[in-house]
Design brief:
Radius of gyration: 24 Å
Structural class: mainly alpha
CATH superfamily of one domain: Cytochrome Bc1 Complex, Chain C
Low-confidence stretches: none
Strand content: under 5%
Order of helices and strands: HHHEHHHHHHHHEHHEEHHHH
Bound molecules: protoporphyrin IX containing FE
Strand order of the largest sheet: 1-2
CATH architecture of one domain: Up-down Bundle
Mean pLDDT: 95
Distance between the termini: 75 Å
CATH class of one domain: Mainly Alpha
Number of helices: 17
Length: 364
């Protein structure tokens, strides 16, 4: 009896009892206990997935706050952002955190993609975890592109023009794709509500559904162990609470960094977009599209009997297709043999992205 009394003392146990009586939450216990994380020298690479979840949460919360004051029409969008930054309490901070968290999300998605790639976490039976993740990468980039256009300043207007023009080069569906993005033949006032609809409705719904699917696969199949470690002995630690504590500490640190970035490097807003104006100097996309932008810039006007830009888009699409389908192309890893050419391919892509990005900024 004494033990029972001690158990029910304290707010936490009371809440627990309250929930247990109504929802029988104790059934979750075995589920949580079942989830373990392998401990080995690559364990750190299990963190980016959780960080992405946290960052998505930040984006939803700060995005909803911005939505309360943002006006998604070409006439008022820019002014409404100025209003958010100058008059809404902490509006500047929320805008800054939203913008920097979007960068962090794209960077972390890239790290997660390449780490699962190099560790061959995509191999059988996780082909669909990889595919759903790859689709998430595309959606995260879609958030970046549509979000940038919502600033509706000169640079973001022309970046939207150039970005949709490049999408227009896609074979077979290019014209339809650019019309869909622009809401017409060219970028006009009609483009902004289109981008807004994608940014606050279509993309979040698709992302939430895909994250659910992605996590379901991870939960059912458990965390993979890299080929090199598979045959060796390793420890497993319970996800709850051991691993989740570490996750939580990382999330706090990241949140602190985002707030510091927003405070010490406030997000700039350029001059209001003018659709009739000629393109200003220094039109450029955000850093994560720079490598593609630079590739298209350095290619000659015509090559291999085709327009240079088209060749560039085809090269990029081929790269995307190979990476998306890697679980089905790399048959060796599925049999537990580390395929070297896949590692070369991965490093090739990393070096290409870094070098192109470097030259894009160096040639300013
Ligand atoms: C919003 C984006 C994403 C979220 C929220 C997310 C979340 C997660 C989480 C929480 C895990 C479990 C922890 C771990 O093993 O790392 C995971 C695993 C995994 N993710 Fe993602 N992910 C996202 C994007 C991606 C991308 C872009 C890829 C690659 C194309 C990817 C591929 C994988 C794979 C293959 C695993 C299994 C790893 C293993 O079992 O070792 N995910 N993801």
């Amino acid at each position: 009896m004494a033990i029972k009394e001690v158990k029910t003392v304290g707010l936490l146990s009371k809440v627990n009892d309250w929930l247990e009586e109504r929802f029988h939450i104790s059934v979750l216990g075995p589920l949580l206990k079942k989830k373990t994380i392998p401990m080995h020298k690559y364990t750190a690479w299990y963190f980016p997935g959780g960080i992405l979840l946290f960052l998505f949460g930040i984006q939803v919360v700060t995005g909803l706050m911005l939505m309360l004051f943002y006006q998604p029409d070409a006439e008022h969008a820019h002014e409404s952002l100025l209003f958010i930054m100058q008059y809404v309490p902490y509006g500047w901070l929320i805008r800054g955190v939203h913008a920097y968290a979007s960068w962090a999300m794209i960077l972390t998605a890239m790290i997660h993609l390449f780490s699962t790639f190099f560790l061959k976490a995509y191999r059988k039976p996780r082909e669909f975890t990889w595919l759903s993740g790859f689709a998430l990468m595309m959606l995260v980039l879609g958030f970046g592109f549509t979000g940038y256009s919502l600033c509706w300043d000169m640079v973001s207007l022309f970046a939207t023009k150039v970005g949709s023009e490049i999408a227009g080069q896609t074979p077979f569906i290019g014209k339809q794709l650019s019309m869909f993005m622009r809401g017409g033949e060219v970028v006009t006032e009609a483009t902004l509500p289109r981008m807004y609809g994608l940014h606050i409705c279509a993309l979040p719904i698709a992302t939430a559904l895909l994250i659910g699917l992605h996590l379901l696969f991870v939960q059912v199949q458990g965390a993979s162990v890299p080929i090199k470690i598979e045959k060796k002995k390793h420890r497993e630690v319970p996800f709850f609470p051991d691993f989740l504590y570490r996750d939580a500490v990382l999330w706090l640190v990241i949140f602190f960094i985002l707030v510091c970035a927003a405070v010490f490097f406030p997000k700039h807003l350029g001059e209001k977009a003018d659709i009739m104006a000629v393109a200003p100097e220094g039109i450029e996309p955000e850093w994560y599209f720079m490598f593609a932008f630079q590739l298209l810039k350095v290619l000659p006007a015509r090559m291999l009997g085709l327009e240079g830009r088209l060749v560039g888009v085809l090269v990029l699409l081929l790269g995307v297709a190979i990476f998306a389908l890697i679980p089905f192309i790399d048959r060796k890893s599925a049999r537990g043999i580390d395929s070297r050419w896949v590692n070369y391919l991965g490093w090739g892509a990393v070096v290409f992205i870094l070098v192109m990005t470097y030259f894009a900024y160096a040639s300013h």
